[in-house]
């Protein structure tokens, strides 16, 4: 039974977070990076007990959890490194020009204020309580209030304890991090509409993310909501590639579609190609491959039920045919990975088939002409990823179509499969609506910090009272733009 | 009489803009910079006729318009330089690590799509048809549809013609720039809710900006709205400064408050200080200074009427006293610059007194204690600017209060006055709601380009098909982050 944190308690925590923000605003990037590295150490030191608890709560295999834990530790460390490098403070200095009556202007980025984080069920470490949203918000200089995901409450508590241990060890205000528990919709809504909350980060369903987005925009002072809400991650397969590699592509596709029982937000749920012998070979290989998928539990019973329900809605649509199916879950023996096929006109005219089914489910759309493929690309909603399965020649033959696909996603792959999201600077995990609420930001990679900062300019401010990032002698030795040119030195001022 | 562009015509222009976006997406930063410099040349070449037309439409003095025209030309050129430097494409490359099974990832920023610009009446050049929003959107790679401000239709048409001349000269698709005219609310709403529009930039009233923001967020695919909606730009005067400089400060304040008949968004409409002899000296100087203000017309009759109406609403509030007033407009002899005073408790408890009165109107809030000043700071809504009139010692004595003020504005001044917005990198023209809808961005300075880009990642994409910004040999010779380090060279790849 999960305890519902009371409104009084939530209010108290929001108040403490506001106080902690005043403290955090005056920390340097180095101090925040040290804090983040200490959190990484703390999580890294959590032993077998954590893995056992999380395995029991999520059914995720221990090997996967071991990897995800390492990734989570790596997130804290790599974001800390980026924060310490001063990348997200982005200092800009335009020196005074007294002869032109122009004053001294210095701008940098500060934390936006208290951030509420709603974790995801499918990544109990990397996208949850101590996940990327929490790490990037603290890196930006923002206190964090986590609403724990009710599917893994014990895991969430262990992670919250790890962060709080570091808060205590550093002697920082306790309001820097708060852990709220509960299952009610009202708790999330209450947090989002509170006037002292300045941003929200969410990973989950379209319904949940859009509800928070709407609440945030109806506030007297609207705030940004960064919701990652899922995607069907289309694969567009072109003719030359399909001819030479139909079987290999089918194996790759099946492996990606069923990886982690299909519970990845970059799961490739849609495959689009021209009809013909090559596509038949691809489909025939899928039929064989699905039988090799090892059954495993889904995250929890609710997800299994939702998967079966939404999958069956898709299967029951007219002009749809099951081409591959096998029992791939162990819980109750009810979960069947399935792939259906349909034709382009059916897909284009039935919006049900464009909705995400969270789990191992895919649709192969068989197109009569390249114009139908173009029409699907044109009609496509925003996606986290799009994969172009093609040869160089295919790309050359389809430049206009590929250019159009750029408008529909955050990450464009040339072959390979979209599952597997590297935590690096060049990652973009975020795409046009409805895959996320704001395609201008990523929730993976150090650039995730950008979501939680805003610029402030100081005009003619005395050096003594400027933040370290903007002082004349550049004590943090970071790269700054001075009069339009990048510069890592201290300022050579003509006046004394 | 202003012609209302028909819905059919608007639809056609949106369609053309979508086509132009596919073209713009494949232009290089150098090509867009050349285009922007050509627009600057074209506007610069517009002679006395432009100034005469705009003077007739806006009543703004020729000297001011000459300066604003130069500023507008300067905006196009400085944004072009920043675009050509590749700052806003922000390339990030993480090379493949085959031994770790990590692919090659390359991210950069592309234009977000078609942008609708609503210009302001108070800056017919710099914040209107060919103003900073249009320049920064085109710099980002976005087609622009301008909804002309009905207060200066001829000026708007001359500017639109200037841009279109360059579009034709470059042989670029005409959809890159469109000029829509009309006075109806429906036209603006129609543009904002059209599914092919990807962002909106607006400068004007809170009512107008918030209406567009709400429309944009209610769309099936919500889009960002960058609305700059005004501000009362408080001046917090501290004791030591006030004691030594009450008279000088009063002169500066009066000059800033009545500059351009008070029609600047950074007009300092609020002055907060402790009661006492120094503040009395400040107020007495205001009484004298207001008599020296040279009368001038406001922008148009509607603005004069609105000024008088809202000023009188403020004056009629309880516990309010006029301390300085003089006729400062020539039109109908009705416009009186006015300054009122009230006490802190009245100001704190009457929200009417915190509303912007667009024009030469100010409120002096006389505080009994520093706690009352702190309470005002705490209750303050978001502002474009806050000015701290202080000595170093005052700052030292009020660190907590000054830290709080940082949360309430985009630009913090140490003495001086906030009117005068430099077009430089370190400028932040944008603050917490309701001064703007998005405090994370500026509408002045080259960084304004950031509003209209979004990142896209390419995974394992063949070099031939990558954008110039991300190719191995770095043909644009821009600074890029490669494996976490900044680098202006070409990539040294180990494989051939």
From TrEMBL, chains A, B:
InterPro entries xref list: Ald_DH/histidinol_DH (IPR016161), Ald_DH_C (IPR016163), Ald_DH_N (IPR016162), Aldehyde_DH_dom (IPR015590), Aldehyde_DH_Superfamily (IPR050740), ALDH_KGSADH (IPR044151)
Keyword DNA damage: no
Keywords: Oxidoreductase
UniProt cross-references to SUPFAM superfamilies, sorted A to Z: ALDH-like
Organism this protein belongs to: Chryseobacterium culicis
Residue ranges constituting the Aldehyde dehydrogenase domain according to the UniProt record: 3-435
Record protein name field: Aldehyde dehydrogenase (NADP(+))
GO MF annotations, alphabetized: oxidoreductase activity, acting on the aldehyde or oxo group of donors, NAD or NADP as acceptor
